[in-house]
Amino acid sequence: MILVDLTIVTVATPTIIGELDASVNQVVWVSSAYMLAYAVPILITGRLGDRFGSKYLYLIGLTVFTLASLWCGLTSTIEMLIVARIVQGLGASMMTPQTLAIITRIFPASDRGKAMAVWGATAGVAMVVGPVLGGVLTDGLGWEWIFFINIPVGILGFVMAWRLVPALETHEHSFDWLGVALSGVGLFLLAFGIQEGHDKHWAGWIIAMIVGGVVVLGLFVLWQARNKREPLVPLTLFRDRNFSVSNVAITVMGGVGASMGYPIMLYAQAVRGDSPTEAALLMVPMAMMSILLARTVGGLTDRLHPRAIMGFGFAASFVGMLSLAIDLDPDTPIWALWISMVIIGVGNAFIWAPTAATATRNLPMQFAGAGSGVYNATRQVGSVIGSAAIAVIMASRLSALIPGASAQGEAGADKIPDPHVAALFSDAMADSLYLPVALFVVGFIAVLFYEAPKHAGFGATQGAPAATVSATD
């Protein structure tokens, strides 16, 4: 449900722009506010799950998320929708760390890859359900129903979690509230400055916000190093190289996930004239490959070197995204776009679940919540920055290629009638996709630094004991 709400809003973007009289930048804030509220508390909610029980934090978060979804659907202004999405993000931040922490605790390291494959396949399902359901609901009932749909799902999820999710042992923790404040202020200043920069013509106060955000985040890291009690982010976690590399990789994927949907959905609806449902179908081949390959990749994750698995994943994703950016023209046949999406989907299947499994294999059980919180927080930091950056890039490319044109007016139209303007709009969206292309390159370089896992069973099929492989890697 959390991941569906990231993708479902993207499809409804042009409709929300038109019905709430909003700008592209404001509608991007509908997702950015959600992701920022999701990212900031996620470090402390993972620790709260360790202290008071993952099951109970999950149930509280699910309740907040479901009620906030009702609020989102009842709003009539873009500003109130953004506020409701902030509350929804707070609910999501309570839920997500608990899912990964529970999997880490109840599955042994040697089998965790298979469990993470199921967890990762859920993301693939959300990538299918989100855009398609968003398109169908927006076309048939209105954009409000992309939020109302969460209510029955939330109620069913609450009943199932109450009955079926185990109540695991808890651990004593102190809470680093100064760390929470520093990380929250730093992320907000950085994200707000980046996203509003183009709209505010990079005024001095915007630059000051960005610089201030970097400084505050630097102070946050310094405080984490000096906090002798229990820091919000135990920096000792990063002594494990695979945990550190996985956090870089998932930050990249968070940025990709938050940035690629907007240009594609705006291109499909404003240039091709697709309905929201038709536009959403562009994403289906990518998501289907993630689902179909989940089981196979899960088995490989427990046996093969993560460098090989994720290296292939990032390389394939790069090829698919680059071909999509090159092919994004008004007359591009649908099958050509689908081929690119299939390649991206294959690559993503070799990234999402293997990265999560590799990140958490070596963590002590008492740090399961903290490690899960850090991992999910870095993903959300990537999402926040990716969302802010894509808003800037789209707005700047539209301004450069269509001088004097209103991004709000162009994107909110059913279809741009002027073929010349449509071609220029298409070029602007294609140029914007070079952001996720570049992010895949960063991810590929990062995963080259993985070392061989140390869990029991690794390397058995290769005829070498795990300890020997690790020592010689």
Automatic annotation (TrEMBL):
One of its GO terms (molecular function) is transmembrane transporter activity. The keyword Nuclease does not apply. It is a multi-pass membrane protein. Residues 1-455 form the Major facilitator superfamily (MFS) profile domain. It holds the Pfam family MFS_1. Keywords: Cell membrane, Membrane, Transmembrane, Transmembrane helix, Transport. The keyword Lipoprotein does not apply. One of its GO terms (cellular component) is plasma membrane. It is found in: Cell membrane. InterPro entries: EmrB-like, MFS, MFS_dom, MFS_trans_sf. Its main location: membrane. The chain crosses the membrane at residues 27-44, 56-76, 82-103, 115-133, 145-165, 177-195, 201-223, 244-267, 279-297, 309-328, 334-360, 381-402, 433-450. Belongs to the major facilitator superfamily. EmrB family. NCBIfam families: efflux_EmrB. This is Drug resistance transporter, EmrB/QacA subfamily. It comes from Nocardioides terrae.
